[in-house]
Amino acid sequence: MPHKIKKEPSSASKLVKGLEGVVAAQTSLSDVDGENGRLLYRGIPIGELVEKSHFEEVAYLLWYGKLPTATELDDFKNTLKVQRPLSDRALEVLKLIPTTTHPMSALRTMCSLMGSLDPRAHIVNPEESLRKAYHLTGVFPTIIAAFYRLREGKEPIAPDMSLSHAANFLYMMHGNKPTPEMEKALDAYLILLADHGLNASTFAARVTTGTLSNLYSAVTSAVGTLAGELHGAANQYAMEMILEIGSPKNAAAYVNKLLDEKKKVMGFGHRIYKTRDPRAEAFRQIARNLCVKAGKTEWLEIADQVEKVMMERKNIPCNVDFFSAPVLYVLGFPPDFFTTVFAASRVAGWSGHIIEQQLDNRLIRPLAEYIGPQEQYYIPREERK
After folding, report:
1. Are 199 and 25 within 8 A, CB to CB?
2. Cβ pair 345, 137 in contact under 8 A
3. What digits encode the pLDDT tens for the residues 53-84?
4. Taking residues 201-222, what's their average pLDDT?
5. What pLDDT score was predicted for residue 13?
6. According to a count of CB atoms within 10 Å of the terminal CB, is the N or C end of the chain lower?
7. Which pLDDT score, from 0 to 100, does residue 25 have?
8. 3-state secondary structure of 33
9. What is the pLDDT of residue 266?
10. How many whole angstroms separate alpha carbon 208 and alpha carbon 45?
11. Quick one: pLDDT band at residue 231, thresholds 50, 70, 90?
């Protein structure tokens, strides 16, 4: 008979499912203040950055820890632009990916490929990671737009180096230079989603980095994590819900039915924010301006009705996924591409966290509480029932 072992619980081994409330890292990139509904990048409120800044400047802020001078910003933009083109070898591989593949799976595959094509991919240090961060941040929109056009049976469009990061993204998608309202809306979205503390995908990136794996591997881990519906894919499902509702007059009945059936209404509530999502508040007016200018107000009208029911019945405010969904749709992104746009933004934050992890690295290795059997022994095959 096996020897009986009585395990005494450790005073330090308190189980916290989902690691909720557990501090697992220190960061100076973003402060997610859930109690007061505030988000700050390097101490600057997100609303101020949306109003006064643009994505390239915010990426610089996250990576370098300060706002750039005019010369530093020009150099940063030019370095980022150089990374936009997709190599012939990379485009060949992209064309081999079945067009039935989910866009996030295609992006994950291409992110890994970028590492295979980089002869310095194996070098792991903050300086090399910064170089790779420029590359992935610059090329992600090109990959996304190229896969979209290939799926539509069209040829990819080469990047326009005269355009901003956001404007070029839209140009490569549709072949037309965007209006100022369209450029501002996408730029604001990219700013708002660039970083958000130790969220699931960022945590995945830091865990991978903690093993001394390279930035391509870490970002690939993050992209795979972002793809889940409890993380980045929520905006896709929020828009699919809005499309299914179809008309503002159907919204109340639709949402009430979901709530009566104890089903989740996508785009509402947040694990961290206890009051409101400051990103949604910062994006609300930009969303309205774009939709009014484009003559596509029906989606926002549906969103307003859904939000009204949710506040009346559950007192749960919307999150950034909810208001960003109609904006991305009006900008011409199909719902299943929404999360790829999220990734094109969050790659800036992932990169900042990867470098931060490398500067003060320790292998991330939490414990698991074993709850399986103890008093077992091996049974020979002929004796098993």
Report:
1. no
2. no
3. 999 999 999 999 999 999 999 999 999 999 99
4. 98
5. 63
6. C
7. 86
8. strand
9. 79
10. 29
11. confident
Residue with tokens 């101020």: 48
Specify the 3-state DSSP secondary structure of 221.
helix
How far apart CA 375 and CA 377 sit, in angstroms, is 7
DSSP letters spanning 160-180: -TTS-HHHHHHHHHHSSPPPH
At 375, list the tokens. Answer: 């008093």
Spatial separation of the C-alpha atoms in residues 294 and 317, rounded to whole Å? 26
Axis-axis angle for helices 248-260, 234-245 (nearest 10)? 120
Structure tokens at 162: 């005269």
Distance in angstroms (rounded) separating the CA atoms of residues 151 and 153: 5
Q: What is the pLDDT of residues 297-334, one digit of tens each?
A: 888 888 889 988 988 888 887 778 787 888 999 999 99
Active site residues: 270, 321
**Alpha-helix residue ranges (DSSP H) falling in the chain:** 46-52, 55-64, 70-82, 88-96, 103-117, 126-151, 165-174, 180-192, 200-210, 215-226, 234-245, 248-260, 278-294, 298-313, 320-330, 338-359
Unique residue bearing structure tokens 């999220």: 342
More confident residue, 201 or 272: 201
Cα separation, 233 vs 108, in Å, equals: 14
The residues facing 45 across adjacent strands are: 40
